[in-house]
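Researcher: Can you fold this with glutathione in place?
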Amino acid sequence: MLTLYHHPRSTYARRVVIGLLEKQLEYTSVVIDMGKREHRGPAHLAMNPYGRVPVLADDDFVLYESATILRYLEETRPERPLLPSAPRERALTDMHMRLCDIQLARHTGIIIFPKRFLPKERWDTQAMTAASQEIQRHLDILEPQLADRTYLVADQFTLADLAYIPFVHFLPIMDVATPPNVQRWVDHLLARPSARSTVPDV
Ligand SMILES: N[C@@H](CCC(=O)N[C@@H](CS)C(=O)NCC(=O)O)C(=O)O
């Protein structure tokens, strides 16, 4: 039995919820009250010593790190695949998932956390501007790769695209100029039922 410990405003947790929806997997949802710092309490730290969501339990097997969780679901429940079958395409999927974390998600947090949750006087605008520049650079690198393509890899929706959804959702508040091919890809991804049904309230 799958149990997901998460929070509806968490970008990383949203990835896993989208994965579960796309694969039509049944799971028990446990919302960790991050406002009350439940993620730093002993019960949650016993599952994830870093005190973060998401955490997935598959019976007594506990796993954290959203990209790893998605890969595990794919390995153990291959129906409705989100990974291509050819080794090269699987490798490309992994590459894009890693690049999403390193080149986009990390910088996204620097901008969207303050914008969503902190008053303006607490924003580190210098760090936010630097993060916007990094994101712009990444989008500009993606742009030619997305010419004449619907998805990042193998002309099918894969974990590579899925990993991006919760982060590209916030492009409108990232102070970047989204290039046209990237915008088309983003619009397509955000129109998926799994993306639409998991839009956070802020
Ligand atoms: N690399 C982790 C990142 C998880 C993460 O940073 N989650 C945030 C919520 S979006 C969190 O739990 N933050 C609480 C904290 O760091 O105290 C993953 O992919 O799961």
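Model: Folded with glutathione in place. The beta strands are 2-6, 28-31, 55-58, 61-64.
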